[in-house]
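Here is one chain, start to finish.
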Amino acid sequence: MPAPDAEHIGARIAWYRKLRQKTQLELADLANCSYSTITKVEQGVRPATPGIVAAVARALSVQTTDLTGQPYLTELQQDELDGLIQPIRETLDLYDLGVDPDVAPRGVPALAAEADQLCALVRDGRLKDAARALPDLITEATTAAHTARTSEAWGVLASTYRTAYDVCTKLGYPDLCVVALDRLDWAAERASDPVLAGMRQYLRSLVYLRAGQYHMGRRLVTVGMATLAQGEPGRVRDVVTGQLHLGAAVLAARAGDGDTAAGHIAEAARAADATGEATRVHWLSFGPTNVATHRVSVLTEQCQYGEALEAAAGLTIPADWPASRVAAHLAEVARAQLWTGRTDQAEQTLQRAREVAPQQTRYQPMVRETIASLLSARRSTPGTLANLAHWVGI
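Its structure:
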């Protein structure tokens, strides 16, 4: 039975379901979804939400990326991004080799400035630029950390690992995401920084969110909160704590626990009132705007699409907000517009996301699934939609 070469998630679900010798009804029971949902998703007439993808992946004992089709190799090759992954993979394995005698590292302040610059590139959606520069910086920061053995040097190395996590997540390499987080934990321990360690648990919880393992994700948030409590009080700790609440809200919403999700959003809002916009604190983009966009996300995860669009309509995004976060929010809005029959608006919103952060938007599974569903809903394909479909590889 050949591997699936499909353009939408539903076709891949059908392929793996048949591989596991399950009927649609049996899969619906295992995934705790309705039979109608499974049939419509497989036919491509209903989009597969991240929650459906995660539930079906668990039921069929496959990874979510098997169903989303990641990584999207053809598009990665077209963008010349595929060749940048292996060097990142190799440098992530240097962590315990000590000082490289062939490397003469710059001072820690210079390395810290470049590490910040790469974080900024990711937030600006410039994944290719960040991925190209990252291996050399990891190599240099590794030797610098083993040479200086200071909290500052280990912190810089931890920052490079965080960028590796971000790049690999956005390009669809979950195996490398896990490796990068393990390296981040290793460096944070040597930096003796509870805030870094708590942030790592937040990022780790997102891995389990994408995999549909919500219970484990929520446990990691709890551990992260306890770790943060050991850090020095102040704005930095408050920012990471608030971001953990936002992650917990999405996890709870995906698990069907709306009350808990609302509670976490309220806690995050209180933290944001104190911190203000803090887009550069560990590059988490935390603040009132991020709380507001997560409120939209939580409503969308609970299938309250009309309410999500109302919340989005009342949101003013600052002009200098990170492009990556703007594009992610627009993708959520487009999904809600699709589900409420606003197909023209959904197309326009996706086009805006493409303009804001093209590299990130092209590789986001939710965007591809929304486009596939728009194609299915249309009797004819207008120019904008046809262009979007071709651009993402459909």
